[in-house]
Known about the structure:
The protein has helices spanning 11-19, 32-39, 56-61, 80-85, 98-113, 116-124, 150-161, 186-192, 211-216, 234-243, 262-265, 281-301, and strands at 2-5, 23-26, 45-48, 67-70, 89-92, 142-146, 165-169, 182-183, 195-198, 221-225, 246-251, 270-272. By secondary structure, it is an alpha/beta fold. The strands form two sheets. A seven-stranded parallel β-sheet has the order 8-7-6-9-10-11-12, sandwiched between helices. It starts with a strand and ends with a helix.
Amino acid sequence: MRVLICDPLAESAVARLREAGLEVVEKTGMSPEELAEELAKGYDAIVVRSATKVRQAAIDAAKGLKLIVRAGVGLDNIDVGYAREKGIEVRNTPRASTDSVAELALAHMLALARSLPQATLSLREGKWEKKAFKGIELAGKTLGVVGIGRIGQAVARRALCLGMRVIAFDKFVQESPLPEVEMVSMDELLSRADFVTLHVPADPAGPVIGKDEIAKMKDGAYLINCARGGVVDEAALLSALNSGKLAGAGLDVFEEEPPKNMELLRHPKVSLTPHIGAQTKEAQGRVGDEVVDILLEFARSL
C-alpha cells in the first residue's frame, strides 16, 4: 500500500506506518497543481490536515486512489461527495482533538472575561492600568453551546465545573446528552446566553451566526468560534463589536485563512489564535495514532 502524506504528521505515526510495511511518501506544502501532478504517479491513500485542499482536479488526476484520510475533524477542504462518487473512501479523526479544542474555547472565554490580551499589551507598553481591566467571573454566567457533539459536550462539562449554567441547541439532537445541560431553541439560546460557543461544521447555506442571530443575542454577550470560519459572518461580528452590542469575541478560525481582515484582527475586544484548536502534543499524538489505525485497517481490507 502506497501512502502520500500531504501535511505534517507526527513522526511516531509515520514510523509506525513504515514499520507495518506501507510505502510512505512525505510531500508537504504542495500547490493544487503540484498535488494533482503527484497523485497522478499513483497512490492508494493520501493523508491531509487542513492546509491541503483535495478538490475535483486533484481527484480526477489521481491514479489508483482509494482512500483520503483527514487528520482532524472538518472535511470542508475535501470534495467529499465527488470523491465518493469516484469510489474513494473519505475518513477523518473526530475524537483525537476533542479535549484540546474544548480547552481552547474555554481559554478564549477566560481571556475575554479578564481582558488578558489587552492587559498583556498594556504592560508590554510600560503601562500600569490596574483599574482599566475590571473583568467578570464565569461562575454564575450562562453558556450557550451551539452543537452538542463531542466537543460541545467537552466544553459543557468544563463550564459546569466552573459554576456556569449551560444551555444547548443542536438541530440534530433533541434530548440532552448531559443531565445538567438544558436543550433549548436557537432563539432562546441566543437571548439567554452570556457566552455563545460554536461547535458545528460550516453550513453550505451560509453562516450560522449572522446579523439576525447577533441581533437576538444579549447586549454585552461574548461569541466564541473554535469551529469553522464560515460559521460566523465576520462583517456582522465586526459591526456588533464596534456598536457595543457584543462585549467581545474569541476566534480561532476565520472566513479566510490566513485572515486579511485587519480591522477585526486589531480589534481591542477580540481574543485571537491562528487555528490552533488541535495543536497540542497530546492531540497530535492521538491524531497520528487514529490515522495509522485507519490506514492499517484499510490495508488489511485490500
